[in-house]
Amino acid sequence: MEFRHAIALDPKYVANYIELAAALYHQHKTDDAIAELHRAIELDPKNASAHDDLGLVLSSQGKTDDAVAEYRRAIEILPDYKKAHEHLDKALQAQSAAK
């Protein structure tokens, strides 16, 4: 996978971890995607995109409470992050429907 090569060349470039996570997610390797997103967040805790993407993967696993926390973190970092707001709204609706 080309992102793994890119990470080997520059292990501190956060975008490569996020892109690798997206590729893994599309291959239905959600646990691996989560691990890569956690690595991205370790390198850059204020990366709103990594938190939002982690929320999406967690949501796909039915971990709505954890997803909500990640969306909120993304919005805390970047208050105008439209996609994170949309994802949070959907997750909160899912939580309400589940009750």
Succession of helices and strands: HHHHHH
| Poorly predicted runs | none
Distance between the termini: 41 Å
Instruction: Assign a percent range to the helix content.
Output: over 70%
* Largest β sheet strand count, sense and barrel closure: none
Name the shape in a single word. globular
Structural class per helix/strand content?
mainly alpha
Number of helices: 6
Radius of gyration, CA atoms, in whole angstroms: 14 Å
**Count of individual beta strands:** 0
Q: Report the mean per-residue pLDDT as an integer.
A: 91
Strand content: under 5%
Structure explained in plain terms:
With 99 residues, the chain is an all-alpha fold. Helix content is 80%, strand content 0%. It is built from six helices and no strands. The chain has helices at 2-9, 14-26, 30-43, 48-60, 64-77, 82-98. The longest helix has 17 residues, at 82-98. The radius of gyration is 14 Å and the shape is globular.
